[in-house]
Write a structure and sequence with these properties.
Length: about 190
């Protein structure tokens, strides 16, 4: 006999994470399975905050959406809720919504790669974001100080671009005129 794992709906997941015993814990919902997230490293936390600050400063003069930190949840499917380290969602897609999570995938998701995160784990998240309508996913790697951008091209093929510290990230279709120098982000680790 094979043991069956209970698959949760988003509503059941939300009820679970709001239980008192889960107050100081972080969870995501992956295809109906509740996954507890490990605490972030100091470097990952610093990088996430640094990236969020650049986005927040941009949004102060370009009031087109909302930014979230590592505890901001996004519904990215019927049985999937993900929490990027930094997320941006336009007002048109739900950036003004109140509640416990944003109703749609972020327009831009930023993941800071942790030592415990395998390449396949990152690929699954990237794929989930993009299939749910995220336009770009940026993955920052603190070990080699690079950033990778994941997108679907016009033929729905995954395109990955790797940026070094000398490069500048842009996302014109998401944040017009926004520029983020990779070196500037990693300075927080010096």
């Amino acid at each position: 006999m094979v043991a069956q794992t209970k698959l949760y709906t988003v509503d059941e997941f939300l009820a679970f994470v709001q239980l008192p015993e889960n107050d100081d814990r972080r969870f995501e919902l992956h295809d109906g399975e509740i996954v507890e997230l490990a605490p972030s490293s100091n470097d990952n936390t610093k990088l996430g905050i640094e990236i969020a600050v650049f986005h927040r400063l941009y949004l102060r003069t370009n009031d087109i959406g909302a930014i979230s930190g590592a505890d901001g949840g996004y519904r990215v499917g019927l049985r999937k809720v993900l929490m990027p380290d930094v997320g941006y969602i336009s007002y048109e897609r739900g950036g003004k919504e109140k509640g416990t999570m944003f109703p749609n995938a972020p327009d831009l998701a930023v993941e800071i790669i942790s030592p415990s995160e395998t390449p396949s784990m990152l690929r699954r998240k990237v794929r989930a974001y993009l299939l749910a309508g995220t336009k770009a996913v940026w993955a920052f790697d603190p070990e080699d100080r690079t950033a990778s951008e994941y997108r679907f091209d016009d033929n729905d093929q995954l395109v990955v671009r790797v940026f070094t510290e000398d490069d500048v990230l842009t996302a014109e279709d998401v944040l017009p005129d926004f520029k983020l120098t990779v070196r500037e982000v990693f300075k927080v680790l010096d």
